[in-house]
């Protein structure tokens, strides 16, 4: 024995919903009962091994032994056999579905081995509710470096050289965004963290906030210093109660340690961060709508210019960055721009975090260098499609994105390549669809979402989404008419070109890309009144006993 | 069926207290409404003129903000708020069927509350627990991997 163990029990939403809190308490009680003094029990964010569906998961460090599906009644055995006697409990280890081999250490799990963790560097390895853990992992070192050794201009220069681009979806160079804001002369400026992850199918911001809130706070503070802001805001979705709770804890701790507030680290820089909870509106992810919402107005976008960098919150210069962008900032300052620029593809530097879900064996967060191919992500990391089905399409970018058909599996995942195949990176949602998924229905689903979420301010978006939804609904119900596809294309292009904000400009993408790649499916619905994929109503649930056929 | 639970009389004094506490905050309207809702479970219409007066707004402006956001409610909600996640992953794994099942079982449509005030049925755009899709949230507890059997059990437990 002799060695000190730390038991990390995952306390992210999926594992919590499977009872990880009871597992944590059982560990605490059992370690105490057996009188082991060299074991620390901690909660952590997602271990991120793509096995959230087999939770609750527990990792024993420093060996990195990885247990899945741990129940409170398993805890005494783990404590006595593993923590006391040094013999890991085999029956709870991960078994590789391909080789059938037991894998004890998470580093050796396929899902994990092919990843490159930059943004998720601390997820699952620290207790997100303890600032000391973050500091021990090198946290706030970058803040000290930026404030004490670098001028704001040098910070911006470093970020520019790293090639960091906004991870919220548009991919705008972060350094340039900061430079604009820096160059505007104003006694008061703001910097906002956009944590309004409203895309259905995306959960990476939630995960980062739940697992490593201090990284976002540190990045936001460095950004504030770089642009000359006095105040920061984190605008977070109220649908993420755990993220809100952990952020509040983290902000209090950062203030207590002097990383926020007056004269931070004796540098003369004064900055504080306030939390604003969203109230449920997808359009508030759009920056001008987000600003209106922080100001307690209806979250409606307004035309740009003026851009927020010129006149944003309260008419003052304002910068808005995504959670993942800000979480990347500290490590870039700490390890240098060259290190970051060495990862990724030519025009898209660094890594991307993808929320892999849908018809996939290993669902979870995946962080890979930009430019990794879709097939690597789906087959090597995601473990392929369950139940022996075939891959049909991958939907990226949520309602603003498109469907990439299975026949182009080598598409690299970066900003440029996805745009070339008619989709977008978006915030990183990646929903895998198998052969039974009806693509017309997928388009209808996204339109029903955007139609409901359109703020209604501009006509093309308000009426266009409604029209498209009506046509798509008709087609899925077998009432499609000759010429519907052409009408859809015409409306889609108009809405795309004439809408006021990003929501309207991108919401026709699911329609356009499914028509482009799966036009035959539309034709079959319209002409033959049948769905070639499957009967949508028949497919989803394993058992439908006792359920009357809907519709 | 249980005894009908009427929503208790709204304590206007308490609303005034909340308004006074939040007033110091910059851009306080949404946070005030959020706190009122946290305490009362919904935003009582009686609160609107009070909030408006303290923020120097017209009541219609306050109403306009409340009606814009999906998470503000001006009617009392049931003791158990059941939300079906409609995220993409949940959708491709059968959320629509779950919603229909709940509507049938509870005898109410999405957005409605049962007459005995026990259940409110809602949908949510995405709760970000896509790995466990399809998900149903009862009050704050996430229930992943839902299927008709589990859902039926969940309801019986709630009634038990």
TrEMBL record, chain A:
Q: Give me the segments passing through the membrane.
A: none
Any matching Pfam family: Complex1_51K
| Record flagged with keyword 4Fe-4S | yes
Keyword tags: 4Fe-4S, Iron, Iron-sulfur, Metal-binding
Could you confirm whether the keyword Iron-sulfur appears in this record? yes
Q: What Gene Ontology terms describe what this protein does at the molecular function level?
A: 4 iron, 4 sulfur cluster binding; FMN binding; metal ion binding; NADH dehydrogenase (ubiquinone) activity
Q: Which residues form the NADH-ubiquinone oxidoreductase 51kDa subunit iron-sulphur binding domain?
A: 440-485
The chain's coiled-coil residues are none
Q: Which PROSITE patterns match?
A: COMPLEX1_51K_2
SUPFAM superfamilies linked to this entry = Nqo1 FMN-binding domain-like, Nqo1 middle domain-like, Nqo1C-terminal domain-like, Thioredoxin-like
SMART domains attached here?
Answer: NADH_4Fe-4S
- Domain of life, per UniProt, equals Bacteria
What family is reported? Belongs to the complex I 51 kDa subunit family.
What name does this protein carry? NADH-quinone oxidoreductase subunit F/NADP-reducing hydrogenase subunit HndC
Automatic annotation (TrEMBL), chain B:
CDD domains reported for this sequence = TRX_Fd_NuoE
Signal peptide (residue range): none
The protein's required cofactors = [2Fe-2S] cluster
Record-listed [2Fe-2S] cluster binding positions: 85, 90, 126, 130
Q: Which domain of life is it from?
A: Bacteria
Please share the entry's free-text remark on the cofactor: Binds 1 [2Fe-2S] cluster.
Which InterPro entries does the record match to this protein? Answer: NADP_DH_HndA-like, NuoE-like, NuoE_dom, NuoE_N, Thioredoxin-like_sf
User: What Pfam families has UniProt attached to this entry?
Assistant: 2Fe-2S_thioredx
Q: Which UniProt keywords apply?
A: 2Fe-2S, Iron, Iron-sulfur, Metal-binding
GO MF annotations for this entry?
2 iron, 2 sulfur cluster binding; metal ion binding; oxidoreductase activity
Per its UniProt record, what PANTHER family does this chain match? BIFURCATING [FEFE] HYDROGENASE GAMMA SUBUNIT, NADH-QUINONE OXIDOREDUCTASE, E SUBUNIT
Which family does the record claim for this protein?
Answer: Belongs to the complex I 24 kDa subunit family.
Protein's recorded name: NADH-quinone oxidoreductase subunit E
Task: Report the source organism.
Answer: Thermodesulfitimonas autotrophica
Q: What is the lineage of its organism?
A: Bacteria, Bacillati, Bacillota, Clostridia, Thermoanaerobacterales
